[in-house]
Every structure is written in C-alpha cells, then in structure tokens.
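TL;DR need structure tokens for one chain.
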Amino acid sequence: MDVGTPGQTTTRPQRRAAPLLAVGLVALGVLLAACSSSSTTSTTTTAPPGGTISAGNAAYLAADLKAPAGTLNASGSTFVQPFFTKAFYTYTSKNQGLQVNYQGVGSGAGITAFEAGTVNFAASDVPMAASDLAKVPASAGPVIQVPDILGGVSISYNIPGVTNRLRLDGPTLAGIFDGTITTWNASQITALNQGVSLPSNAIVPVVRADSSGTTYIFSDYLKSANPTTWTLGASKTIAWPSSAVQSPKNSGVAASIKSTPYSIGYVELAYAIQNNFTYASVKNAAGVFVTPTLASVAADADQKVNVSPTDFSIVNEPGAASYPISGYSWAILLQKQTSATTGAQAVKVLDWTTHTGGGQDLAASLSYVALPPAVQNQNRAQLLTVTGPTGQVLLTK
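>> reply
TL;DR here they are.
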C-alpha cells in the first residue's frame, strides 16, 4: 500500500564586532530556482514574493509589527531557508526600515556563528547539544530554542528512462548510502519494485558536504530503521563512503542530483518539488510505503506532540499515514539580550514567524507544514522569557 500524492500540499545581540555580509532577501522563486544551478543561499528584500498573511490574530500581530527599525543578522539551516525567505520578507515589508539578513550556510555553521556571537539568532534542524551549549559564554545567559517550521526530507533520484515512483525501505536506503548496494538493479531494490525495469548502472549517492541538520534527520531515520546494522551513526556530519558525491547545502545536493544521471540524494521536500524531482515512497514503522506530502509529514508529527531541545526526534513514528523522514527546524537565540532594541526586534520577528496569523500561514504554499498548535503555544511561552539587559520582558501581548 502507498500513501500520498506527488507534490501534494493539503537577537541575539552581537557580543563583538563581527557583522555578517549583508547579502540581501531575493524573491523565493529566484532562491529556489538557484537550487538547480548554484549552492548560494542567502536572503534579501529586493523583490516581493507572492502570498498574503491571514487576518487572524490581527490586533496582536499589528502590535508586534511596531518593533523599531534596524538590522538583524542570522544564519544556519538551508532546510528552512525557502520558508524564512518569504516569512522575513513579509514581516519586514510591514515593518519598514527593519532588515533581516539571513544566510543559509547549514545548521552546523549557523550554530558556530551563534556560539561566536556574530548573529542575532541562528537556525538548525537539530537543536544545540550540551557540547554546543558549553561553547556559549556563561555570561551570555541561557539559550532559547524553539521550533520554527516542520518539513519532510525527500529521497530524490535521477534515473534516465525511469519515471516510476520507487518504493524504498530502511534497509535498502541504508545499503545505498553506506555503499553496500551499488547498482540500481540490485536484488534489494528490484524486490521492492516489481514490474519496474531498473538499469544496471552504478548508483551515485549524493550527500551533504557540510555540517547539516538535514543530514541529521536522514541519518537519524536510518539509525532508527536499522538499529543493529546502520553503523555510520546519527549526526550532522557523517563519514560517507568514497562513492558518494558530496555537495554543500540543500541547494547543492539538489543541483548535483539534477546534473548527475543515476544519482540519489536527500533534500528537503520544497527543494524536490521546485526542481520537479521524482522522489520515493518510503516504508514507515507501520509497514506502509508513504510519499512525503504535507499531510504525511503532519501525520508523523502528530504521533509526538511534545518535543523539546533534548527530545526532538520525530523520525519513524508509528501510524499508517506517517512519513518517516520528518523533522523540525529550530530557531536559537539568547534568553538574556544585551540590547533591548535589537532583542525586541529578534523576539518579535521569531514570534510572528512561528505562529498562525503570521509566518505559519505561509507554510503550505512553500511545501512546509505549519507548527502544531501545542508547539506554537510552547514557543510563545519560551519567547515570553526573553528579557533585555535590565530584566524587562521584550515580547508583550
């Protein structure tokens, strides 16, 4: 049984002077089109993408949009980049004078910039671990980490002459990416795809070259689905076999898949849809082959509504409708801000972005899933604890 339809859509204050290069917010279409030709992923506010914001919660959002003008610097996840591009443009277009410079450099690089104090906030598809948090100076105070969007990781491929949606399971994907399954007509693949004529060509796995939260989600799934046989672990960086093509960022992996015959790789669903990739149905914990869609990603998240920075994995959740390679992206900022002005800007942008009536209304049009209500409520409770240098709360209702 297969579930899913292809393409279905149902401040951190700076502690020292090291500003990011202001590369400016490009329109979303330009950003995603670049996935097929370039690995550059940065945001600017030059041309408005389409779409509107819901009128819901209008009074609160109007008050939020009175944050003072200025500039925020942020970096990290490319998983969340297409969503952030449109959300930040929409927010700043209603708050003239404020600019958000977000650089999609990968989750690991975003966390490094946050630890160094060169960004007002960061984004990562895996929260900061204890070892990461230890690198933040104690004087900077606690770190707040809140989910900002929910998405699926597609298994996309480029097999000339094959347009079928393949079925793949955990053991087969593990074999492809650890280098033990090497040809497209290998028995493990053909057994799952009877009636599909698969070539004898060598498989070219495409993986991330940088420290990547998307890699974490994918490798976390492989570890969960193959607890005794997957030996490469779950991490933002994996020691992939030499047969794999390594490309930086989701956009780089997408470009490599598009340009490399007989390749297969993992990219966030928005990149797969934008590039018109064919992507696999993956066998979930209930034994059902499920295609990544907004509904199947949401079904997976619904199985685990209480997530936290220390208990965040939602891969391979139970339920017949669950797409098993799903995960949250997380926004990261300091609880104690050293500037009330910049801190207020950051917390208001993130609160608007992570709630219905604000940025979450844009999620479905960009092939992401809006955060569940319980997660949104949890986010606001966390963001209400962010204070300025004199202890004043920076987010008001």
